[in-house]
From TrEMBL:
The keyword Methyltransferase applies. Its EC number is 2.1.1.163. Keywords: Menaquinone biosynthesis, Methyltransferase, S-adenosyl-L-methionine, Transferase. Methyltransferase required for the conversion of demethylmenaquinol (DMKH2) to menaquinol (MKH2). The gene is menG. The keyword Nucleotide-binding does not apply. This is Demethylmenaquinone methyltransferase. It holds the Pfam family Ubie_methyltran. GO terms for biological process: menaquinone biosynthetic process; methylation.
Amino acid sequence: MTRAELDKSPKDVAAMFDGIAGRYDLLNDVLSLGQDRVWRHSVVRAVDAYSGELVLDLAAGTGTSSESFTRKGARVIACDFSQGMLRVGAERRGGASRRGVTFVAGDALSLPFADETFDAVTISFGLRNVNDVDRALRELRRVTKVGGRMVVCEFSHLPIGVLDRIYGRYLMAALPTIARCFTANTAAYEYLSESIMDWPDQAGLATRLRAAGWTRVAWRDLTFGVVALHRGVRAS
Ligand SMILES: C[S@@+](CC[C@H](N)C(=O)[O-])C[C@H]1O[C@@H](n2cnc3c(N)ncnc32)[C@H](O)[C@@H]1O
């Protein structure tokens, strides 16, 4: 079984997600105790897409993060570079373009879209897996219309250092152990724990968003900082 390392080699990351695609959504529900649904609901509210808008859901995987953006009539491009994840998403929906969601293969580091295409761009639990985060943030900005918005949903850190370290130990011990009951690919879930602990904290990510050209950057914690929602605007 392929697992990615913290250098996030694109080949390894894509192969790892290809390998877990079939059980990806089930494991999300189990490992987060259903909290993933609450987090996704918060993302939908933060993006606040409405009729006539075009939304990019980058690193969309099986499209679970994509569907809800269509509720008020927006159209969504669900883009990912794992053919396995895209295939599972398209099979579950009966096609690659259904109910306002269109799956498109593409790399976050070189997006297959023209400048200023989207009213809003969003990425859920994807940015942490990208090989060059700063480049991906610039690419997201490039394809966003001036005045458009961005929402990043990503695992983050508990605000009190000692609690964050205890949480980190829990992640390293518990996630792969629980995952073992559902999948043979526990290595992917070791990577998940390691990559969460290696990820910048809320303020650190906000600094990188600003450096990539996003303005009005702000964030809010979900579930005590287990996840953070960062937002920004393309001002010019
Ligand atoms: C943890 S999954 C998140 C899927 C979905 N957004 C969700 O919330 O369930 C991370 C996804 O990021 C994708 N990914 C990682 N690096 C990427 C890149 N450079 N370009 C496109 N997709 C990428 C992976 O293929 C994987 O499907």
